Amino acid sequence: DAKTTQPTSMDCAEGRAANLPCNHSTISGNEYVYWYRQIHSQGPQYIIHGLKNNETNEMASLIITEDRKSSTLILPHATLRDTAVYYCIVTGNNRKLIWGLGTSLAVNP
Amino acid sequence: DTGVSQDPRHKITKRGQNVTFRCDPISEHNRLYWYRQTLGQGPEFLTYFQNEAQLEKSRLLSDRFSAERPKGSFSTLEIQRTEQGDSAMYLCASSLVTGNNYGYTFGSGTRLTVV
After folding, report:
1. Where are the beta strands (DSSP E) in chain B?
2. pLDDT in tens, B3-26
3. What residues of A are in contact with residue B35 (Cβ under 8 Å)?
4. What does the radius of gyration of chain B's CA atoms come to, in whole angstroms?
5. Which of A:35-94 have CB within 8 Å of B?
6. Are the beta carbons of A62 and A75 closer than 8 angstroms?
7. Any B CB within 8 A of A99 CB
8. CB atoms A101 and B42 under 8 Å
9. pLDDT tens digits for A51-103?
C-alpha cells in the first residue's frame, strides 16, 4: 500500500473552509484515497473516498489531482466540532488500512 | 442496526491475566477488522476476516493474541498473559466488499489498561 504524507497540524477559523492536503506520490492505479477523522477518544469516522474523480458528500469534498499524486480534503464551513485528527490513506479493494500520524486540525472560534 | 458495537468500552487488568473483547459488526457487512491504537499514533492493523475466514494477520499479532469470528457474525479478540505493552485502544471495524469499495465503519473501541 502506498504511503501518505500530511502536515502534522493545521488551524482554521470557524466558518471558513478547511483545506487539508495529502501527498501520495507512490499511489498505484487501483488504489483509492480514503479520508477518516478521529475525535479524541472515539473510533475513526469515515469521511469520503475517491479513485480519480473529485467527490463530494454531505461532510466534505475530495479533490484529487490529475496525476493522482496528491489530494485535498475540503471541509467547506468548518465548525468547532470538526476539530479532530484527519487521516489520509490509500489502499485497494477494501483491504487493510495503513495509517500515518494524520493532521491535527484545530478549528478556532 | 446502529453501527459497530464493542464491549467492554474500558478494561483494566493485572499483568499476566487473560482478556477477551467482543465486536458486533454491522449485520450485512462481510468483512471485520481489528486494529490497535496507542496514544498519539494512528491505528495499526492486526487482522481481518471475510465472513468466518481469517484472511490476514499482522506480525503484531503475537501468539498471545487470537481472534475468532464464528459463523461470520460477531468477533472476539483474546489476549493471553497480558503485558503492560498491550495497553492500547483496540478498534474493530466492518465493511461490505462491493465494487464501490466503501469505507469502513469503526466501533468506539475498547481501551485496555494493563497494570
Report:
1. 5-7, 10-13, 19-24, 31-37, 44-50, 53-57, 65-68, 75-79, 88-95, 105-106, 110-114
2. 999 999 999 999 999 999 999 999
3. 97
4. 14
5. 36, 41-46, 49, 51, 87, 92-94
6. no
7. yes
8. yes
9. 998 999 999 999 999 999 999 999 999 999 999 999 999 886 556 788 888 99
